[in-house]
Amino acid sequence: LGARPPARCVGYGLGRFCSCPVARRQLALLLLLLDELGVPPSQCFVFDPAFSEQELALLGELGLRLLPENEEGKHRVGEAATLFYMIHCGKALYNNLLWSNWALGALSKMVIIGNSFRGIEERLLSRILERDYSYIAKVLKGTEEIAFPSHPHYTDTFNDTSIHWFPLQKLKELSCEVWECVEEPTYQECDDLEIIRKEVSVSLQRPAALEP
Q: Where does the signal sequence lie (predicted)?
């Protein structure tokens, strides 16, 4: 991709992989990617409020680490290039992630594997996209995207999935107005939020010994 390889990974929404074959295949790809990229499992942080005790234990055996709380996607990359693995997550999660890293230096360190931004743009009315998911709307012209190849055996596993990254030069070409508004998303007018809020997930998540 012309960028330095990720040194760490964050995975949201892996799902109930002990009972769901689709989630199990998505977890398998995540483990293969970590191996291919040379990212230690201890540098892969995951979260899904739906994880069972058994799944939390298995993730611990695999060496992955559980994020201590529901971040609602608001994870800052810091100094390290980071892969975000977010297949079939809600649009608000991507929007929150972009907002929390809304700067040239941060966005250019990110790679997102998840729902196609082009697909989101095509399926939503422009006024809805700009109102509810403004950071996705604003970053589109600064995004490079490659769709996952289609495969008849995995149509329900990786459909509408793309790799996204944000080249520094493309980001610099965006207008100054794009960077001026950094208001935190609230989704007050959003009818289909597709995200589990922090206060809701507290009652769903159980304590585990995987926290960093």
A: 1-44
Flag whether the pTM goes above 0.85.
yes
Type of residue at 94: Y
Residues 6+ apart with CB under 8 A from 145: 116, 117, 118, 162, 163, 164
- Per-residue pLDDT tens digits for 23-64: 999 999 999 999 999 999 999 999 999 999 999 999 999 999
In the chain the beta strands, taken as DSSP E runs, fall at: 8-12, 44-47, 65-66, 82-86, 110-115, 144-147, 161-165
E strand map for 42-201? 44-47, 65-66, 82-86, 110-115, 144-147, 161-165
- pLDDT tens per residue across span 123-133: 999 999 999 99
Q: 92 and 190 in contact (C-beta within 8 Å)?
A: yes
Residue pair 148/141 in contact (Cβ under 8 Å)? The answer is no
Cβ-contact 206, 57 below 8 angstroms = no
Question: DSSP 3-state assignment of 114?
Answer: strand
Q: Does residue 203 sit in helix, strand or coil?
A: helix
* Confidence at 177, pLDDT banded by 50, 70, 90: very high
Classify strands 144-147 and 161-165 as parallel, antiparallel or unpaired.
antiparallel
Q: Count CB-CB contacts under 10 A for residue 144.
A: 15
Asked if residue 208 has pLDDT above 60, the reply is no
Per-domain residue ranges for the chain?
8-179
